[in-house]
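Translate structure to sequence.
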């Protein structure tokens, strides 16, 4: 059977602060600049959730994209959308909520919720110009 990749793009707003409590304030200001602002700041995140697998002879689908949307909303968006990532989301209690780490956490949660035979890749946009990709390595 042919293999295809299918993608659902989702959106969430969230606030964060990049700060490593193990380092000095000076180190944090130098490393993170404005992103170290103690009063937090927000981003409009866009995330492309891509699954790859065989096209079913029965449905013609790799995966029903509406189901992928529902799983993504339940597993990720319900926890991150309109949240302060540092304060509201236990995933980031000991993890700096950089776009890299947000992508890794989202990947782990989605991986556990999706059929094992589908490969999963995320592309997470923090700004229209900056994104990271993660596929589980
Ligand atoms: Ni930021």
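Result:
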């Amino acid at each position: 059977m042919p293999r295809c990749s299918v993608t659902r793009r989702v959106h969430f707003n969230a606030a964060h602060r990049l700060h490593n409590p193990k380092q000095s304030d000076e180190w944090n200001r130098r490393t993170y600049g404005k992103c170290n602002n103690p009063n937090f700041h927000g981003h409009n995140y866009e995330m492309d959730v891509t699954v790859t697998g065989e096209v079913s002879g029965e449905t013609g689908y790799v995966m029903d994209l509406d189901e992928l949307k529902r799983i993504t909303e339940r597993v990720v968006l319900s926890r991150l959308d309109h949240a302060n990532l540092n304060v509201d989301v236990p995933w980031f209690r000991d993890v700096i909520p950089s776009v890299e780490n947000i992508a890794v956490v989202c990947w782990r949660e989605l991986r556990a919720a999706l059929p094992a035979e589908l490969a999963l890749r995320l592309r997470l946009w923090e700004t229209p110009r900056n994104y990271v990709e993660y596929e589980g390595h």
